[in-house]
Amino acid sequence: MLQLLNADLITPYQIKKANLLIQNKKIISIGNNIHQDAETLDLTGKYIAPGFIDIHLHGGGGADLMDGDVDSILKIAESHIKYGTTSFYPTTLTAKDEELFKLFDNLKIAISKNNKGARIMGVHLEGPYLSANQKGAQDERFLKEPIAEHYKKIINSSDYIARVTAAPEIPGALELASFLQQKGIIASIGHTDAEYQDMLKALEHGYSLLTHFYSGMSSLKRVNGSRVLGAVESGYLFDEFNVEIIADGYHLPPELLKLIYKIKGADSIVLVTDAMRGAGMPEGKSILGSLENGIEVIIEDGVAKMPDRQAFAGSVATMDRLVRNMIKLADVPLTEAVKMATLTPAKIMGIADQKGTISQGKDADLVILNKELEVEIVIVEGDIRYQKG
Questions:
Q1: What are the residues facing 288 on neighbouring strands?
Q2: What is the DSSP string of 250-279?
Q3: Which residues are CB-contacts of 242 (< 8 A; sequence separation ≥ 6)?
Q4: pLDDT tens digits for 214-259?
Q5: What CATH number should be reported for the domain holding residue 83?
Q6: 330: pLDDT strictly greater than 90
Q7: Mean pLDDT of all residues in the chain?
């Protein structure tokens, strides 16, 4: 048993002082009791938050998922745990089918060996069914239309696929969403030129999430003199759409963070790092994607940029930084900022029965923070996997 005493627990609704008792990977009691036979940590003056859940993460610590090997996958898991991420969904980029199949095989091995890092919950396929006009840093050579024969081959090749990002305006993308629903996989909209009518059809066919809101996404335009809504405005208009935001202070400025929060609210917003291999690494040249087929980028000013510096190329953010930013830059209450990194992603990914809040019977995934919201201890399923210093 592990006992955590005298901390301020961050719930979705309030901050309260309580003791926690952990046993067999679970939180077994919350209250004022003290158990004499338990290992004890006195956390006076500290916060305990639920473990952060990152549903869009490409890499970190010098490794990228598209490197494809077991060691790289484990390095990502181990590099992000020190920033409070206890669960994550590693995310692909557009690539050759053979790269994906190799990655799926090694992901299975990495999951079985991962006893030091954040828990791998499933994989997020970002592409290859994306708009070339909104490709961003995605490699256009590997973009495809979603033909049933192809996407069924990809998706049926792994049990770990939890989410697929696609552009719903592309022929075949609505049928793809229907297939994903049958498989219990989240259909997400991203790298898209969709207009309002495309977004309405997407909603009706099961798309429910907008990938890195605003980035690689159509907005209001004129067609024959009339204004036509894009994916951004449709994301605001339809309450059914949840949105990801990269709150690193660069992809979205503070005033835009405030607007998104004001309109969508913490129950519909999920904080994501969208981090590439440069997260947790020094500034300078780096590679987005695999070392073999990736794109050279530059890390500077706290963000990854394309070599011409005309566009961002993923982020180097960490989850703790996103939470702090929502409080400091967007004036969001602590409980709401933490919710966007915990309960909201847990609900979106269908794991809220296990994770996302500090509740009796749930997994003991916890982050101990000091009053400056810096990570000091990280616990995954009752196991202390990181301790500062």
A1: 295
A2: SSS-HHHHHHHHHHH-TTSEEE---B-TTT
A3: 208, 209, 210, 264, 268, 269, 270, 344, 348
A4: 999 999 999 999 999 999 999 999 999 999 999 999 999 999 999 9
A5: 3.20.20.140
A6: yes
A7: 96
* CA within 13 Å, CB half, 290: 16
Domain encompassing residue 263: 51-356
> Which residue from 219, 104, 211 is spatially nearest to 166, judged by alpha carbons?
211
> At 305, which amino acid appears?
K
Cα–chain-centroid distance for residue 214?
16
The owner of tokens 């695999």 is 290
- Annotated binding-site residue? 374: no
- 232 in a structural domain: yes
Provide the annotated active-site residues: 274
Report how far residue 288's alpha carbon sits from residue 277's, in angstroms, rounded to the nearest whole number: 7
Residue bearing the bigger pLDDT, 35 or 345 = 345
Q: How far is CA 346 from CA 301, 313, 341, 353, in A?
A: 31, 26, 9, 8
251 is in an annotated binding site: no
The pLDDT assigned to 137 comes to 81
Residue 83 is assigned to a structural domain of this protein = yes
Distance CA 204, CA 226 (A): 25
Q: What is the pLDDT of residue 294?
A: 83
> Is 56 marked as a binding-site residue?
no
Domain count, the chain: 1
- pLDDT recorded at residue 292: 81
Residue 105 lies in a domain: yes
Note the pLDDT tens digit of each residue in 77-107.
Answer: 999 999 999 999 999 999 999 999 999 999 9
Predicted local confidence at residue 363, as pLDDT = 98
Q: Give domain status of residue 14, yes or no.
A: no
Beta bridge partners of 191: none
The alpha carbon of residue 188 and the mean position of all alpha carbons in its chain are separated, in whole angstroms, by: 12
